[in-house]
C-alpha cells in the first residue's frame, strides 16, 4: 500500500507543477488554487508513505514521478521540445526509478 500511495503522491506532484506553470507566477486564481491544494495532497501522501518506506527511496521515487510527469506534460500539452538529449535524460531518470524500486524490494 505505501508504494501505491507514493505513486499517487507523485501524480499529484505532476498536477501541482503543471498548475503552477499555468498560474503564470500565481497571477491566475484557479491554477494557483489547484497548485496549493495539489501540493498539500502530494506532501501529505508522501509523508504517509515515508512511515514505511526509506526516506531516500520515497523521495527519489516521488521526485522522479514528478519530474517525468511534468516533462511529459510539457511535451504533450504545452508543445515543449522533445529532443533526443531531453528524451535520453528522461530515460535515465526512469531507469533510476526502476533500479531504486528493485533495490527496495
From TrEMBL:
Belongs to the drug/metabolite transporter (DMT) superfamily. Small multidrug resistance (SMR) (TC 2.A.7.1) family. Gdx/SugE subfamily. GO terms for cellular component: plasma membrane. It comes from the Bacteria. It is found in: Cell membrane. Keywords: Cell membrane, Membrane, Transmembrane, Transmembrane helix, Transport. Its main location: membrane. It comes from Novosphingobium lindaniclasticum LE124. Pfam families: Multi_Drug_Res. This is Guanidinium exporter. The keyword Transmembrane helix applies. It is a multi-pass membrane protein. The keyword DNA repair does not apply. InterPro entries: EmrE-like (IPR037185), Small_drug/metabolite_transptr (IPR000390), Small_multidrug_res (IPR045324). GO terms for molecular function: transmembrane transporter activity. The chain crosses the membrane at residues 27-46, 58-78, 84-103. One of its GO terms (biological process) is xenobiotic detoxification by transmembrane export across the plasma membrane.
